[in-house]
Structure formats: structure tokens, C-alpha cells
Amino acid sequence: MSRPDIKRRTTLDHRKKQFSTPTYAPVEYKHRLNFYATPPTADITLEQFEQWGIDRLRVLAELEACSFRNKSPIETASHMKPLLDKYLPLSSSTSNSPALQAERQKDHYSHFILRLAFASTEDLRRRFARAETMLFRIRFQGDDSKERAGFVEGLSLEWEAVGEEERRQYAEELRAAGGGYPKRIEEESYFKVDWEKVPELVEGRRVFLRGGMAYVPSREQMSMVVAEFTGRLERALELTSRALPRLDEDDRLSPILTHLSQNFTTPDANYSATQTSLAGADISARTIDTLSSSFPLCMQNLHRSLRRDAHLKHYGRLQYTLFLKGIGLNLEECLIFWRGGFNKITDDAFNKDYRYNVRHAYGEVGGDSNRRGKGYSPFSCHKILTEHPPGPGEAHGCPYRHFSTENLMGLLQTVGVRDQEALRGVREDKEKTKFHLACNRVFEYAHKQEIQKVREEGTWGAAQLETLIHPNEYFKRSYLLRNLGKHQKKEEGEGDVKMEE
Amino acid sequence: MTAILHQNSTIQLHPKMPHSIPGANSAENDEVPIVAEEMETDEMQTDAEVNKPNESNVTPAEEMTAEDAIAEQLKDTKVAEAKPEVKLEDLFADDDSDDEFASSNIKDTKVSSSPPEAPSSPVNIGTLSRATDTDVMRAFYQRLFPWRSLFQWLNHSPTPSTDFGHREFAFTLQNDAYLRYQAFPTADLLRKDVLRLMPSRFEIGPVYNTNPRDRKTLRKASSFKPLAKELCFDIDLTDYDDIRTCCDKANICIKCWQFITMAIKVIDIALRDDFGFKHILWVYSGRRGAHAWVCDKKARQMNDQKRRAVAGYLEVIKGGAQGGKRVDVKRPLHPHVARSLDILKSHFQSDILEDQDPWETDVKFARLLDLLPDRSLNEALRKKWSSAPGRASSAKWADIDALAKSGASKNLDSKALLEAKQDVLLEYTYPRLDIEVSKHLNHLLKSPFVVHPGTGRVCVPINPKRLGDFDPLDVPTVTELLDEINEWTAPEGEDGGKVVQDWEKTRLKPYMEHFRSFVAVLMRDEAGVKVKRERDDSDAMQF
């Protein structure tokens, strides 16, 4: 908690302090964008409080959904435009709109309302910061350049401009780091900042680095501003969370806040094994080979690699073990399965090097037994697509994303997708980085007849046929479709096969 | 004090390092003598023998020589006084560095001066089998391991602080159990526990916000957080298996070591010039790779995102086995890639084309052709190479340009060809990092100077200034080192005025000196930095 700054401390008369009501000057919003550094001070009604919170939440939830669907920034921006105009309009300063200040006030206040709602747990904080960052980025891009410049100037960030001489000295490096941009070095101006301020630019090798300083071209300013925004927001959220328990509150706000935070659901929520277990299915070490035809491509690839090499590297084992756990293979059978799979090593080596891993994934061992719960959740597509890209010799990840197009085509053909039409579709999806679509396309191709059948008979609702975003859902749906006659009855009355909460 | 030491030593297994769980290790506590006893007694000796199952590995002949050497040393060294179980001084590590070794000399007499046993076998047992022998390891930890320097390296000052005290150590015990979350206030207490448990190796983790031993007393598991750790890199030759032809798996030779040499050059200069790091310690991993520890304060305090950024900046070779083309760099080349290319060019000619000869057979050069862009040129090359089996890779590499000039392809894009050749060069030379080690703050990495259990070699620091001279096969093994102590005689013309420490008698000397000067410079720089309490100066909102 930061202490009150010195100026304020001295002006307040300590004898009167506890009785005085602080007075604040009304806030004037000079810029369209806001770093949300100062909290709101004016009064609003309870209805406004709730309505503004809900409006902003709509926007954030949709933004998050866009990222799960792997939409590109441009697509996201165009997708979000109508929503933003409806729920959180922000006119530019030049528009002379009469609602200008009111719009900005709503933006400002709603941000702080949600901050309160989402400060409670680390998970919520992280997601809130991510969604807010996306929102900020979209708005920053939509800002006209003059207004943007004014806003950035107002932030007073610690950036050092690169002098004429220095710029000429490193002209070649600066151009090379910018991928050949700009054509002539005079066309661009540069800032020099500590590289830790622009980690994403460093990670992508998009800036020239020297002696710990990054030379950032002004067109990359956005990523710096955005990083600054995220950093400050994360810190502020942390502070808010610590202050929450001391929130002196009559019980009007907390129900609203709880309600708000509960409504921030995500398709990446934990996957629960009970919801996808298949009653009556024979899932054991022996049957995995047969069942594997119902696996999504990522898991089929792992399965094939395991059968081919009698080995999988760490992340491959983890991804596959958790998937198997998710389809209902119990620990004992899973150990049998891995033991059988790693058939080139001795029992001793297996027990020593691998057994623990599997048990750890099932939550049998490791850490504190009270805290580990049931081990890790099976990976969602989002996780597989975005975390731990496979390195040399590794078979995990998503084939649609991590394979070269030729190898992907080869793999698809070996698993039985030979239809030229489908393959072409996959190729296009991959080029557009729509990996979900590619996977769903293959699913639809592989279950063409069954899907048609349930559609015609109307036995499956729309929810059961929506886009797949989890490997375990892929398996479950595939299994149910292939065993339509057998499991139909059990599924009835259970509603849809929804797995996310 | 001992109670504190022991009560928290639970067996904890690391998810990435699976091992079977053996029984509790507490039984050893009473049997293994921990501190130096005044002098050895026969009783003591028999005691020690009982709990050493691989006793027979030590041949009588060696025992004799050891005894002689000890007798020599005793002349120079005063007999230290008996130490109580825990001395007050143990808590403060500011006694003279000579002390730590002097006391070990006394102790050794106990181990080695036992009466020769009935000869079990006259043959000298191979070095490898002896490497993990408890006796050998004990002698190594007692006499050679640089506890003080290690302490100073991690503590960044001579007075014990939380930099060392809250640092996680993880032991791999002789029975392969993995003991995590160990922490020690001082170097001496670490040394003591190592001697008690005799781990075959130990690893170093991050500094936590609380003492790792107290982590379970915290109300919330999430409030136990790693704060700082050196930025680490791990390069392992197994990642080069698809391009190295001389050895595979765990084997290495000086030829394939050149991959590591290149990697160190490229990474080291990038870390220094680009990121401005100064204190980079390179350590031989004991078998087939090298680790880097970037010890600058700024590097230690980086969060995972920044670590990922550095790792991403340095990563050029991407993609798994199925990923197709592995190198995909933008043009014009980023200054870092361009500089790396310059460094790697000469290595490519000698170490790759000549020594590795990577495209010797049809199958192998098919891989090369896959990477080249022009079809008709590739056809011409394929024809030429198939008809001349055994043509050296360097000749093949030259053929590409020769055929391109002769006009084997009508519409040849010479720029694309040049770029493809650069990509090939990078794919065969650019460092392949085990990136996960670098990305996470809480990753554990084997400590410098421990003994690799498989090879018996000591994980010595590599001096990047004399990188070319480093030969991994020349790195001393623990048994060689102990023999060198025994064989050492004082140089003529010197009286016993100066105590010569054990490590100075061995081939460990240059490595020790490098480490000590590295630590000294690090400590000097660290002392220069006025430690300011960082306060949240942002006017962050709080409700």
C-alpha cells in the first residue's frame, strides 16, 4: 500500500482528518484513451454501477472468446466494432460529440467496477488484465495518430530519443532489425529503452539491441505503450486484491460484484472428467489402439510416434497422458499402457524414469496431497496451440499448427483422410492459421454419415455439434457418433455433451 | 540445530525428474560421521565400513598410497581441535578460506588410514565404477569441492543473506531419490548436509520469498514464490543427433564438442553485447553439454516473461521432427543472426563439412536438397552426387554454387539460393537450446563442480576466453583428482611455510581459479550497487 504522498499529508489537518469528507475536483477526460491511473470519485447510482459493469463485461467476454477462436487482430477488431459501439462507445476528441465526457466517464468507471469484481483470485486477475489489454490495444489502433501522440506524451514514460548521430551510426542494424524498414533511415525516429520494457519486441527479434537497450522505432510504440498498460494494471490489480478484504462496504455492492465475476466464463475452463466419461465404454490399455481412430490428429500423432519409437518426450507424454486420463483411462491401466508403449526399456528404467510422471499427472504424487487435487486437467486446444511449441524430436502440440504443410498432408493421408476436397480445405485453413477449423473440418469429414444421420433424426441438438475446442470433446463426440446405436439411450435425458462450465 | 536441519528434509519428487521413492533416509543420520572427530579410532573405522556396501571397490594398494599422502600433509598441517557437533562459527561464514580445507585434511586421515584389508582383487577397478563410490564422493566433497566459493557465488556477499539462505537446493541421493526444497543458512551447513546425505549430485533452484523449508507453514501455498534465479541456458548434444555423424546418444568426442563451442560463442556474445550482461558463467555439464549461468542482478530478477523474451530472441532453430524446414529467419537478417552467421561460417567449413561430413550418403544429401529452393538445380545436383558416391560434403557444398553458375537451372533465383544456403548453414551450426530451462524462474539446474554420476567428470567452469582449448574428454574425473592429491609432492626449494590446498595439487586448479575470480568480480560489482528498497512508486489505485 503506498503511503499518502507528502504533499497531501501536510495539507491535511490531522485533527480534523477523520471527520472531513474529501472533496474532489470533477475529472475532465482530455484523451479518448485512458490508463486508468486515478480512481473515480464522483457518485453514481447503484443501477448505473451494475449496468456499466455488465456492459463492459460483455465486451471483455467477447474479446476473450475471439482469442480462443484464434482470430487475428484485424478480424477481432472488425468483429468487436459493433459491440463496442453499442456498449462502450468512445468518440474521438475531434468529433465534438455532446456525449463525449459521459462516454469517457462510463469507460473509466466501468473499468474500476470490474477491477473490483475481478481482483479476488489470481486467475480472474490474469484474465481481466489480458482482456483489458486487448481492448486497450484495439482502441489504441483505432485512435487517430494525432490524438495518440497526445495521449502518449501525457503518459510521461521514460523513453530516450535516439540522436541523429547514433541513428546514422547504427543505420544498417536498425534497418535490418526492422526487417528492411525503413528504406531510408531518416524516415523513422527511434527511442532507446531498457529492453525489459519491450519483451515482446525482443522475443520476436523485432528491435535492435545493444548493451541492454532496445532501439524501438516509433511505429512499434504501441507495443511499448501496451506493455506499460498491462504492467501497471497488473500491479494495480494486485493492490486492489489486497485491499478488498478491507473494503468498507454495506452489502449492496458485493452481490453485484460476485454476480459480475461469476459471469465472466470462459471456454477454457477446467475440463471435468465426470462430464465426459462414457458410460459402458471399454476403455483400457488394451483398447487404446482401437479407440485411437477416434482421437483427434494431435493425439493420433502422439500415439503413432509412441508406437513407432517406443518413446515420447516429456511434453508428449504429458499431453497424451492427460488426454487418456480425460477419456476415462484409469491410472492403473494408464501405467500398463505406458509400460507397454515403452517396450525397449527395462522395467527398472521405466519405474525410475517414467512411472512417477504418469502418477503425477493423475495427481497421485507430488506436492502436497491437500493441494494437488486430481492432478492436471487435460489440455484444451487453446493450451496445446499456444504453450510449449514442440522442439527437435518432440511430437506434441497441434499438427495443424506445428507441422509443415507437406508433413501435415502426409499425416492426414496415413490416418485415412484422402479426399482431395477435405485436404485442400485443411491446407487453406492452415494458411489462414485457422487451426480449429482445420481440425473440425477433418472431424466432419471423418464422421460425415453419422453427423448427417443425427441431423436428420434430430437426435443431437446444435450444442452437441458446435465447434470442437477440446481434444477430449473430439474423442467423446467421435466415439458417440461411431457407436450411435449402442449409447443412444444413455445419452438421452442427459442433455448436451457440454463440458465447459 | 540438528533438529531443525532434519525435520524438514522430506522426500520430494520433482515432476520432471521422476525416480522411484525409496525408504526414508533418516537412518543414515546416526551412522555417517558428520563433523571431524578429533582423531580416528579403529572403532570409528569399523563403523564406517559397516555402512559401505561397495567397500571392496577400494583396493588395498590405493589405501596405502592415500595413507602415505596423508602422512605427508600432516607434517604441514596442525592438528585441528575437535569440533563440537555444531559450532557457533558455522553460522557465520566469514572465517578464512584456508580453514575449510584444513579441517578436511584431518578428517581424511580417518578414512584412509585404516589397516589394509585382505586383498580382494589386485586389479585396479576402472575409474567409472568408482566414481559414485561413497568413499570417493566423501573425499571429493571434503577436500575438493569449493564450498566457500559456491556460497559467495550464490550469496553475492561474504555475510550470509537470504540470497543464499532462501535458495533451494535439491539432492539426488545415491538411491536415486530426489530431495527438494533444501535450504541452508551458510556454506558450512550445506557442506555438512551434503556429507551426511552423500548425494550423487545436487541442483540449484531459485531464491524464494521464504525459507523453502518453511513453505508448508505458510497459510496459502500460493504465497510461496520464487523471487530470483540466474538466467540459465542448457545446450545438450542429444539435440544435435539428427546432424551429428560422429557419435550419438550419450557419447561425445572432440569433433562433436565443436557444436557446443560454436553455441557458446554465439550465445555468449549475444548476452554480453546485446543484453548487456556481464557475469556469465559457462559450466561443462559433465557429459555432453554445457550450461550457462547469467548472474547479473538484473538477470536474476527477471520474471518468466522476460526470460521467455531472451530465449525467444536467441532461438532460431524451431519446430519438431516433423516441422519441415527448421530455420525461418526474416530478411534482411537481424543483427544478431547476421553476427551469428559470421561467427559460424568458419566453423561450418571445418567442423561441419570436413569433420562431420553430414551429406555423405544418398539418404543424407536428400535432406540437403530438401532445403534448397530450385528444382532443376536440385535435379542436376542429385544426378551428379548419385553418380559419385562418397563425394565429400565440402565438395558437395561447393557443387551447389558451381552448378548454379554453369547454368544448370534457367530461371535460377540466386538470391533465394543464397538465403537457402544461409539457412542450411544455420540449421547445421546455430545453437540448439533446451529452451524450457531458460524460460522458467523456478527451473533447477545442476550445480557447478558436482560430479557427473555417469562419467565421474567434474562439472567444471569453461573459460570462454579459452574456449578453443577446452576438451571435455580432458576434464578430470573425481578419482583422477584424488589420485593427483596423493601423488603431489611439494615443489623443491619451498619450505612448509605456505599451506597448499588440496585443489591446488590437482588439475582442478585452473578451473577453480577461474571460478574464484568470476565470483570475486561478481561480488565486487554487487557491492557497488547500492541496494535500494524498491517501492511501488506508481500511484496505483487501491480501494
Task: Please give a structural write-up.
The complex is a heterodimer of chains A (501) and B (543). In chain A, 56% of the residues lie in helices and 3% in strands. Chain A has helices spanning 6-11, 46-68, 73-87, 100-118, 122-142, 145-155, 164-169, 171-177, 199-203, 221-243, 253-262, 273-276, 288-291, 297-309, 314-327, 331-341, 347-353, 355-361, 381-386, 399-402, 405-414, 420-431, 435-446, 448-457, 471-482, 484-491, and strands spanning 160-161, 190-194, 208-210, 213-217. In chain A, strands 1-2-4-3 form a four-stranded antiparallel β-sheet. In chain A, helix 5 (122-142) runs antiparallel to helix 10. The longest helix of chain A is centred in the N-terminal third of the chain and has 23 residues, at 46-68. The two termini of chain A are 36 Å apart. Chain B is α+β, with helices and mostly antiparallel strands and 543 residues long. Chain B folds into two domains: 2-119 and 127-229 and 442-446, no CATH class; 234-435, DNA primase, PRIM domain (Alpha-Beta Complex), CATH 3.90.920. In chain B, 43% of the residues lie in helices and 8% in strands. In chain B, the strands form two sheets. In chain B, strands 1, 2, 3, 4 and 8 form a five-stranded antiparallel β-sheet that branches. Chain B has a four-stranded antiparallel β-sheet with strand order 5-7-6-9, with helices on both faces. Chain B is globular and about 75 Å long. At the A-B interface, helix 4, helix 8, helix 9, strand 3 and helix 10 of A face helix 13 and helix 14 of B.
